[in-house]
Write a structure and sequence with these properties.
Layout (H helix, E strand, L loop, with lengths): L9 H5 L9 H35 L3 H19 L9 H11 L34 E4 L2 E4 L5 H8 L13 H9 L28 H25 L5 H7 L2 H32 L13 H17 L1 E3 L5 E3 L3 H8 L1 H26 L4 H4 L5 H27 L11 H4 L1 H6 L1
Antiparallel strand pairs: 1-2, 3-4
């Protein structure tokens, strides 16, 4: 594993004063500082996950498996708070699929329940089961999978045959390997993989040696990929250079594009409303672990972080500096007050969803057909995200920015087409 100076310049960043003049240049720089901090925290927690997975493989017990699961959930906290950096920053979008692509056809990776089926018209590798098979034929070419390595996963198996659901790497591949399939539908309960799936002496479900290799390789690759993006946001990194090249107006447009697109098309639409329309747990973001409520909570928080110029680091330190909020307030204080209130309201609705999950009513339960009260809780989140997006658009106009196109979603813009499908 290559060396990386974690939390680089964190002390200097933390000293940034909120009282500093909120000029466009200062706001853009602080936006990049928060990106640096969130990706560094994502890297740190991924390394913690790697340590706990090594402990699981050293001694596969239910206790070590649970520790690895806990580390995975902890790693999602900072990573989800990076997601407002998508959509506007091409360097992030081009990279993001390696670490957070979803949904995935888990039969590509490992054994699945018979209810999963053996084939799919859309995906010839739907049930390829790399862990059980040492060779695959891709486009008429035989791929040697005798050794499961990071290179095999990232360079040959990820999105095989250009099928997006062939996800072989990243958080969700690791999630599946830790939890296994969630076979509970819209009833309570997550995946329930046994620790003996990783035992060399008491192996369950076969191929434990290869399953161990897959989990280890996927985790090492996640760390490597996060090292890359954390490096990109260092003061002389490629992401900062790309952002600076856009100038003040281009930089502000990037910030607002990320906020609005995550708020509306991605989070309200593809990650939440779609699942609510079809009542299908396969459409929940963290579908094996039933951690989706927290993924959505921290995605929404990432939008608020970017607007307010505040980020709470995993060590508890509050990073605070010149904010987009201050720029909008100078242009139109009513819009700033409205958007700030709406961002807070969204977090309130997200907290309701989190509180329900503590009672066992996780996202897949809430979206279940016939669960009127649960559906209403999820719809409140969708409505709040949709409303705040309208005010984000108002902020765009207040700052005299143009040519900004936010991501849409058929789930919101043409729900009848989803229902019909």
């Amino acid at each position: 594993m290559k060396s990386f100076s974690a939390l680089a310049l964190s002390a200097a960043i933390t000293m940034t004063s909120a009282a500093q003049a909120a000029t466009p240049a200062a706001v853009i720089k602080h936006y990049a500082d928060i990106a640096q901090a969130t990706f560094e925290d994502s890297l740190k927690t991924a390394r913690d996950l790697e340590v706990n997975i090594a402990a699981l493989l050293d001694k596969p017990t239910e206790a070590t498996l649970q520790s690895a699961k806990n580390s995975w959930i902890a790693a999602r906290v900072p990573y989800q708070q990076t997601e407002a950096y998508r959509f506007g920053n091409a360097i992030v979008d081009d990279w993001e699929g390696k670490v957070n692509a979803w949904p995935l056809d888990e039969g590509l990776i490992d054994y699945v329940d018979s209810s999963y089926g053996a084939e799919s018209d859309e995906n010839p590798f739907y049930a390829a089961n790399v862990i059980a098979n040492k060779s695959l034929t891709i486009g008429g070419v035989t791929v040697d999978a005798t050794k499961i390595t990071a290179a095999l996963l990232g360079e040959q198996l990820q999105e095989i045959d250009e099928v997006e659901s062939n996800v072989a790497t990243g958080y969700h591949a690791i999630e599946f390997l830790l939890w296994g399939q969630d076979l509970n539908g819209t009833n309570k309960g997550a995946g329930n993989r046994a620790a003996t799936d990783y035992s060399l002496t008491d192996c369950s479900n076969g191929n434990c040696d290869r399953r161990r290799d897959y989990l280890s390789a996927a985790t090492a690759l996640l760390v490597t990929d996060l090292e890359e993006m954390a490096t990109n946001w260092l003061p002389k990194g490629a992401a900062r250079a790309e952002l600076a090249a856009k100038g003040d107006k281009g930089g502000l447009a990037t910030i607002l594009t990320g906020m609005g697109s995550l708020s509306y098309g991605e989070l309200a639409g593809e990650r939440i409303k779609l699942g609510l329309i079809v009542h299908d747990p396969e459409e929940e973001h963290d579908c094996f672990s039933d951690n989706t409520h927290f993924s959505h909570y921290y995605d929404a928080l990432s939008i608020k972080n970017v607007y307010t110029g505040e980020y709470r680091r995993v060590d508890g330190t509050l990073l605070k500096g010149p904010s987009l909020s201050a720029l909008v307030a100078a242009a139109d204080s009513a819009i700033d007050s409205k958007l700030t209130a709406e961002l807070n309201m969204t977090q309130t609705y997200m907290q309701v969803m989190v509180d329900q999950a503590k009672k066992g009513n996780t996202f897949d339960v809430l979206i279940g057909s016939g669960n009127t009260a649960g559906n209403a809780i999820v719809q409140d989140v969708v409505d709040s995200l949709t409303q705040q997006t309208k005010t984000i658009e108002a902020a765009i106009h207040a700052l005299n920015l143009s040519d900004i196109e936010l991501e849409g979603s058929d789930s919101l813009d043409d729900p009848a087409s989803i229902t019909a499908g």
